[in-house]
Specification:
The chain is mainly beta. The protein has ten helices and 56 strands. The strands form 14 sheets. A four-stranded antiparallel sheet has the order 1-56-55-54. Strands 2-29-28-27 form a four-stranded antiparallel sheet. A hairpin with a 3-residue loop joins strand 4 and strand 5. Helix 2 packs parallel to helix 5. It is globular. The two termini are 47 Å apart.
């Protein structure tokens, strides 16, 4: 959102003079990396005073090196399209890069610009780096995001209020803290640490003219906080068993909190006196409303058959007015609104639907579909004079619905975890939604715009596997995820979607490629326990090239390919601890390899002493090497912990395996002798995916850290060639001989090139 500021007298001249004082880089742009501290801190304020924030926000160097707090304030002044785009890029991962150094921030901004399809801006950010983004999907970015607030833990609850004329959000986290945030600046105003367990729910109310927050946690207490001072006003108001839900209302002119405890007892708590009224409803209280002049609570109950239902309960008597049924599974969230003068309840269920009910009659008004998973959170607002519902759930998306028509108006993407709670507020005169998730961020969205800016939509859940091939002389990437069993084929050069391969009945967790009868194919392993072979030229499932290979008791977690006795084979691993070898031309099983004591999650292939082998690892602390001709174990390495991933390469003419683990180290093994040749250290946390290639005649590996850092290694020397920081950790990747990297990060597919670093090494 933007706020116009009238330029102050002489502010333009002062700003121009300040910018002119900056040293110049080789390209004649301002050299912000050597700017005076005053400019780094205050240039944005001078630009805003001069009405020139748009100009400054289009300077990539400024966004990289300026103080993040002052940049955040300047983002709200963006009005020109390019400035608004730059602001959207900055906000996309603001909660991550604001605490990093300038070089890491530059890398994240370059990737986020690629996610917004802002190619020129992306290349500007990546200038001088050892890599360059090529393209990316934009599934998890949105131009509607205005602020990202970061908790140190996952966030479970959120409410909004106005304190001293400023809109705030009150959030509760798994770390037991309650935090109050200024929604205009994104700053924390109070951090409250009194609960002994995770904060389950938060609500706001006015008591004796003071704004308070009411919080409940894993402990048996309801605490009331003065939001101006951040101090407890009343506490331990209910001390019997764990309280799990809270809402607030006004009954007979008195502020009350409606709470639900672990035993299902609902209490109405007078916030002025601390006295309680008990209703044995066995309910989860989630919202309140006025119906025909009576104040009611909308609750989630169990009926006599222990099915979850929604009830409308009169608060003064505790009597149920309506019992609402319609969801086919459990109801997870409820909110209320007024539509065309009539009070309604909006419910979200585990059946992925959102339903709208007339509270006066109990009748269904709308059934809203679009979420691909359970709906955990519902809130309401008024946007452009129309009542809307904002819903969030397991699929990580936030959706906005017109309550009068039942139409979807916006889909807001950005959370990497499921959305657990939603609240609404008004900031700078514009309605916003505040969402919390397990990722752990609090995100603020502009409900008026709700728009995405230039995004390529790809997978709707995390990308778990990626491979590459050449089809009709074009390099392609094949990606797989858990979104309805789809596999997607992308043109690596352009990012265009080539094919969407459907057939698996569940998510797809593994993909590899091969050439069968002269045609490129993809082999995919699914959570449905099957392996499928696809013709990459046509995207079709043919009888001669496509097989459904059965025999797994669980999902297929890893796939690799090799050539055995002149025939292409696939090696697949899964949750049943077995490794299977299949003839890709016929679909026949060749070997079943047993020996692992846990699920097998990674496989790679190599040639050792002229014989094809497979290297497997998984839940047990062993790496096993199998002779693919005989199906026998060649030898076994015993490690200190589970191994995430394995890849192979040839170093100095000798085949090696590269393995990653929980301890943050990367081991390079000589496959002929079983000895360690290098230990690659540099990651600060666990290491996940690994990929290898020969680029410019140099064997390299690229490894993924749990903190989002990618490192590129020269396998000859064991040295790190370059590193890059991602907004989120990559779960899978592959690298081609020309230095192109395709990786899966959350729901996104990202392609980048390492050509700059290899050009310097020539």
């Amino acid at each position: 959102m933007s706020t116009a500021i009238r330029p102050e007298p002489f502010a333009d001249a002062i700003f121009r003079q300040l910018i002119a004082s900056l040293p110049r880089a080789d390209n004649e742009r301002p050299a912000w990396h050597v700017a005076e501290p005053y400019l780094v801190r205050h240039a944005a304020q001078h630009a805003a005073s001069a009405g020139l924030a748009d100009e400054l926000l289009q300077d990539a160097g400024f966004l990289v090196h300026a103080d993040p707090e002052t940049v955040t304030a300047a983002l709200r002044q963006a009005t020109a399209p390019d400035a608004r785009l730059a602001a959207a890029v900055y906000r996309a991962s603001q909660g991550i890069h604001r605490d990093l150094d300038a070089d890491q921030r530059r890398q994240i901004l370059a990737l986020d610009a690629a996610r917004f399809q802002a190619a020129d801006l992306s290349h500007d950010f990546a200038r001088g780096a050892g890599w360059k983004p090529l393209w990316a999907t934009g599934t998890q970015v949105s131009g509607a995001l205005t602020v990202t607030l970061t908790h140190p833990s996952s966030v479970r609850a959120v409410a909004t209020a106005v304190v001293d004329g400023r809109p705030v959000a009150i959030t509760g986290g798994y770390d037991g803290t309650v935090r109050v945030w200024d929604l205009a600046t994104g700053r924390t105003t109070h951090t409250i640490t009194s609960h002994t367990g995770e904060v389950q729910a938060v609500a706001a109310a006015v008591v004796d003219g003071r704004l308070v927050a009411v919080t409940v946690s894993g402990d048996p207490a309801v605490r009331v906080w003065d939001l101006t001072s951040g101090r407890i006003t009343q506490h331990d108001l209910i001390g019997e068993v764990r309280v799990v839900a809270v809402a607030t209302a006004v009954v007979d002119g008195r502020p009350v909190a409606i709470t639900n405890d672990y035993n299902g007892v609902v209490r109405v708590l007078d916030l002025t006196t601390g006295r309680t009224t008990r209703h044995n409803l066995i309910s989860k209280v989630v919202a309140s409303a006025a119906v025909d002049g009576r104040l009611v609570a909308v609750t989630i109950d169990y009926d006599h058959k222990y099915n979850r239902v929604v009830r409308v309960v009169e608060l003064t008597t505790g009597r149920a007015i309506h019992t609402i049924t319609g969801h086919s599974t459990e109801v997870g969230a409820v909110a209320t609104a007024v539509v065309d003068g009539r009070p309604v309840a909006i419910t979200g269920g585990s059946d992925s639907t959102v339903r709208v009910w007339d509270l006066a009659t109990g009748d269904a008004v709308h059934t809203l579909t679009g979420h691909s998973g359970s709906v955990f959170a519902v809130a309401t607002a008024v946007v452009d004079g129309r009542p809307v519902a904002i819903t969030g759930g397991y699929d990580g998306t936030v959706r906005v619905w017109d309550l009068a028509t039942g139409d979807a108006t916006h889909t807001l993407t950005g959370h990497s975890g499921s959305v657990g709670a939603v609240a609404t507020a008004v900031v700078d005169g514009r309605p916003v939604a505040i969402t919390v998730s397990g990722d752990p961020t609090v995100r603020v969205w502009d409900l008026t715009t709700g728009r995405a800016i230039h995004t390529i939509i790809g997978h709707s859940t995390r990308v778990g596997a990626v491979a590459t091939a050449v089809v009709d002389s074009r390099p392609v990437a094949i990606t797989a995820s858990g979104d309805h069993g789809t596999v997607r084929v992308w043109d690596l050069a352009t990012g265009d979607a080539v094919h969407t391969l459907t057939g698996h009945s569940g998510g797809v967790g593994a993909v590899a490629t091969a050439v069968v009868d002269g045609r490129p194919v993809a082999i995919t392993g699914g959570y449905d326990g099957t392996v499928r072979v696809w013709d990459l030229a046509t995207g079709d499932a043919t009888h001669t090239l496509t097989h459904t290979l059965t025999g797994y008791d669980g999902g297929v977690g890893a796939v690799a390919t090799a050539v055995v006795d002149g025939r292409p084979v696939a090696i697949t691993c899964g949750g049943d601890s077995t490794v299977r070898v299949w003839d890709l031309a016929t679909g026949d099983a060749v070997h079943t390899l047993t020996g692992h004591s846990g699920g097998v999650g990674a496989v790679a292939t190599a040639v050792v002493d002229g014989r094809p082998v497979a290297i497997t690892c998984g839940g047990d602390p062993t790496v096993r090497v199998w002779d693919l001709t005989t199906g026998r174990t060649t030898y076994t390495h015993t490690l200190t912990g589970s191994v995430f991933a394995v890849a192979t390469a040839v170093v100095d003419g000798r085949p090696v395996a590269i393995t990653n683990g929980y301890d943050g180290t990367v081991q390079v093994w000589d496959l002929a002798t079983g000895r360690t040749t290098h230990t690659l250290t540099g990651h600060s946390g666990g290491v996940g995916a690994v990929a290898t290639a020969v680029v410019d005649g140099r064997p390299v590996a690229i490894t993924s850290g749990s903190n989002g850092e990618e490192q590129v290694w020269d396998l000859n020397s064991g040295s790190c060639l370059t590193a890059l920081t991602l907004p989120h950790p990559a779960e899978c990747k592959t690298i081609t001989a020309d230095g192109t990297v395709a990786l899966g990060m959350g729901h996104e597919v990202i392609a980048l090139t390492l050509e700059p670093v290899f050009r310097r090494l020539r």
